[in-house]
Amino acid sequence: MKRTEKETKVNEIQNVLLQASSAVFLDYRGLNVEQITILRNKLREVSVDFQVVKNTLTKRASDGTKYSGIGEFLKGPTAAAISKGDPVAGFKIIDEFTRTNPNLKFKIAVIDGKTINQQQMMTLADLPSREVLLGRLLGTMQAPVAALVRVLAGNLTGLLNVLNGIKESKAS
């Protein structure tokens, strides 16, 4: 690769990293083309780009960005799963894929500028989706109001029952 091509590629990688909400760097040794294609397709479904990267160019592209801490982990064959949308969506797919394909090895991940290890990534992958968490939060916020409505309705129902009882006793 010529110097100008390398500079162009470094700029492209840097632009992709700057726009990303998260990135996972993996060692893909031991995976065949079919397995990588399956992983790539699963990641593509959740808008995560999976590509093989050159370590030296990626190190240069990461310098001076929120990804500057990844350089020491980029050794050997490296692939990157880069998400521009939901930062945890790729983590879930990768975690699921590594359970059935142990040859895919974790190197380092970055989410919103913070490097995380494999255990932290797996913890994030086990969390429910953003929509589910928002639904739970909304349910938690509505619970006290719903309980108050039930209590107030219970008092009114009791009052109506007492009044109906008085009405029936006077009628008979």
What is the fold's blueprint, element by element?
Layout: H1 3-19, E1 22-27, H2 33-45, E2 48-53, H3 55-62, E3 78-83, H4 89-100, E4 105-111, E5 114-116, H5 118-126, H6 130-171
Antiparallel strand pairs: 1-3, 1-4, 2-3, 4-5
Helix pairs in contact: 1-3, 4-5
Structural write-up:
The protein is of the alpha+beta class. It folds into two domains: 3-127, Alpha-Beta Plaits, CATH 3.30.70; 129-172. The protein contains six helices and five strands. β4 (105-111) and β5 form a beta hairpin. The mean pLDDT is 84.
- Global geometry: elongated
Label the CATH architecture of the largest domain: 2-Layer Sandwich
Identify the CATH class of the largest domain.
Answer: Alpha Beta
Strand content: 15-25%
Mean pLDDT equals: 84
Structural class: alpha+beta
Low-confidence stretches: none
Q: Give the CATH topology of the largest domain.
A: Alpha-Beta Plaits
Overall number of strands: 5
Tally of separate domains: 2
CATH superfamily of the largest domain: Ribosomal protein L10, N-terminal RNA-binding domain
Distance N to C terminus: 103 Å
Q: Helix amount, in percent?
A: 55-70%
Please work out how many helical segments DSSP would assign: 6
What is the succession of H and E elements?
Answer: HEHEHEHEEHH
